[in-house]
Design brief:
Elements: E1 2-11, E2 14-24, E3 29-33, H1 40-47, E4 55-60, H2 65-73, E5 76-79, H3 91-101, H4 106-119, H5 135-146, E6 153-157, H6 165-180, E7 184-188, H7 192-198, E8 201-206, E9 209-214, H8 216-223, E10 227-232, H9 238-245, E11 251-254, E12 258-263, H10 266-275, E13 282-287, H11 290-298
Parallel strand pairs: 3-7, 3-8, 5-6, 6-7
Antiparallel strand pairs: 1-2, 1-4, 8-9, 10-12, 10-13, 11-12
Helix pairs in contact: 3-4, 8-11
């Protein structure tokens, strides 16, 4: 569905994407993870055929975006990071008007709007204006609108940012349904649990480059340990405890209020720490997550 080799995007002297290789298979959910400024959005915009590449090879749906941009865009669905709905129009009108942009007949878009409102659980709101809808409803409408042309490839930029847990899980359910129908998904997200739930494969980007690629499980196995032991201390006291635990784990990370021990057996490490007289305020043994991988690969320092 998408094939990129040595893909580059420059803005003047700034190189936002630095030689990226990406291959997205039909029917999979593929994710881009990375901190702000990593090059995710620039890559997505090139795939969406709205930003020309500076260098490298790119094929979308078997076509070159430089030569077949309009034909590719006609077969794509795009969910932008910020909702850009027509607030003065109703839910139904948003879908029908957008469908007409693709040259679909009035009869077709009327029927399609009914189908998509049911899919997005918005049928009861069909004739209400968009402005007073909740954030979750607007996000579902934005996704529904992106499906009006029955796209083969759906691009979603931060699809659940700002939503409450119930709304996020409802959107996840709808994306699972789309994938089961054979729609290929490309997703950027800052939510690690979302990436683990939705993505078959993903890449982690940092500084315009891909620093890791694989399934969520593969990345965790490759870059972290099976479990993480968190030992919490009063501020300033954690450093004194490091010497008593640093040999109990494959890797030890010291944070302002706790020590993280990356180990294959968290409970065993906790017992050994207690036996050595280490007394944290609280402790937690948990499985390693994609967030542990992400922070190890891209760092904990905020990048503006």
């Amino acid at each position: 569905m998408v094939s990129a080799k040595a893909l580059v995007k420059r803005f003047g002297d700034f190189e936002a994407v630095r030689g990226v290789d990406v291959h997205v298979r039909q029917g999979e959910a593929f994710g881009f993870l990375g901190p702000n400024g990593a090059g995710k959005s620039s890559t997505m915009r090139m795939i969406a055929c709205v930003s020309p590449r500076t260098d490298g090879d790119l094929s979308v749906l078997g076509m070159d975006p430089d030569l077949a941009g309009p034909r590719i865009r006609a077969r794509l669905g795009v969910v932008p990071q910020q909702d850009n709905l027509d607030n003065e129009l109703t839910v139904r009108q948003n879908l029908q008007v957008y469908g007409r942009y693709f040259g679909l007949s009035r009869a077709h878009v009327r029927a399609k709007a009914e189908e998509l409102m049911e899919f997005a659980q918005l049928t009861e709101r069909a004739d209400q204006e968009v402005e007073p809808l909740s954030g979750g409803m607007k996000r579902r409408l934005t996704i529904a609108r992106s499906l009006v042309n029955d796209p083969e490839l759906l691009l979603l930029d931060e699809p659940t940012t700002g939503l409450d847990p119930q709304a996020r899980h409802l959107l996840w359910d709808r994306l699972f349904r789309l994938k089961s129908r054979g729609v290929t998904l490309i997703i950027t997200t800052h939510y690690m649990d979302e990436a683990e739930q939705l993505c078959d494969r993903l890449v982690v980007m940092d500084g315009g480059r891909i620093v890791a690629e694989g399934s969520p499980a593969e990345l965790i196995a490759r870059h972290s340990t099976r479990e993480v032991l968190e030992l919490r201390f009063p501020p300033g006291e954690q450093q004194a405890a490091v010497a008593g635990v640093e040999d109990l784990a494959d890797r030890v990370e010291v944070l302002p209020d706790r020590i993280l021990l990356y180990t294959a057996a968290g409970e065993t490490a906790l017992e050994q720490a207690h036996a050595r007289g280490v007394r944290p305020v609280s402790s937690l043994v948990r499985r390693s997550t994609l967030e542990d991988v992400f922070l190890r690969l891209t760092g904990r320092t905020l990048v503006d």
